[in-house]
Amino acid sequence: MSNTFSDANRTWWDQDAHDYHQSHSAYLSSFYWCPEMLHEKDARLLGDVTGKRILEIGCGSAPCSTWLRDRAELAVGFDISMGMLQRGTGNLVQADALSFPFTDDSFDIVFSAFGAIPFVESSLTVLQEAARVLKPGGRFVMAINHPMRWIFADDPDSFAVQYSYFDRSGYTEFEGERLTYAEQHRTLGDRIRELLHAGFVLDDLLEPEWPEDLTENWGQWSSKRGKIFPGTAIFVAHLPQ
């Protein structure tokens, strides 16, 4: 019986891998941080990656790590879903984000682009693991669904409020007693406090605006919503030297 977020989401993403790639082919074609299609070549949130060892958390089929492969010294991605990993190439590892299979101080940069962090019981544990494998002074960047998005219905045309922003109980789906999908919710303040508790210094918080020429919906992300309020929050941080 699946009783944990990890078990449920491993099975969910294994089963959804084909449909996910069919639905989001443009987004998965390169290193885009978010449904607003912010590309790393333009944003440069990772900084100069030349000669750097980089780790991606929750890489899925690893379009981001693939883009980095010829630019960095080493780009490694890991994900809990073998179904997703089998669609990628390169230095890919199957692992749970609650326990990184890497040694201390082994990477210059660690990042996540909508991977793993919203899908675990303890996002703080993921951040602590990221801090553990980062070298002193290393950079950490995570892009997640904007916490304000949580309150709205999962519908790109709806502005109906469905949940309380302050309800941290998360979202779950069950088949009988078996947990089949799970997603956590934290407020913006929670996210910042977790970063600080894990030992990071917060450098920036980006809320990408919806591009004028982008008309394609991405799940609940749409131009209708995106022109009014943010759908993505990107945290840029570093470890002290």
Q: Can you walk through the features of this model?
A:
The chain has 7 helices and 9 strands; from the N terminus they run H-H-E-H-E-H-E-E-H-E-E-E-H-E-H-E. It is an alpha/beta fold and 241 residues long. The chain is globular, with a radius of gyration of 17 Å. It is an enzyme of class 2 (transferase). Pfam families: Methyltransf_11.
Structural class: alpha/beta
Q: Assign the CATH superfamily.
A: Vaccinia Virus protein VP39
Shape: globular
- CATH domain topology: Rossmann fold
List the helices and strands and how they pair.
Elements: H1 5-23, H2 40-43, E1 53-57, H3 63-68, E2 74-79, H4 82-85, E3 91-94, E4 107-113, H5 123-133, E5 134-145, E6 171-175, E7 178-183, H6 188-197, E8 201-206, H7 223-226, E9 232-238
Parallel strand pairs: 1-2, 1-4, 2-3, 4-5
Antiparallel strand pairs: 5-9, 6-7, 8-9
GO molecular function, one term: S-adenosylmethionine-dependent methyltransferase activity
InterPro entries: Methyltransf_11, SAM-dependent_MTases_sf
Protein name: Demethylmenaquinone methyltransferase
Name a few traits of the molecule.
about 240 residues; two-stranded antiparallel ribbon; alpha/beta; Demethylmenaquinone methyltransferase; S-adenosylmethionine-dependent methyltransferase activity; seven-stranded mixed beta sheet; about 25% helix; transferase; Rossmann fold; 7 helices; SAM-dependent_MTases_sf; demethylmenaquinone methyltransferase activity
Short description:
The chain has 241 residues and is an alpha/beta fold. Helices cover 24% and strands 24% of the residues.
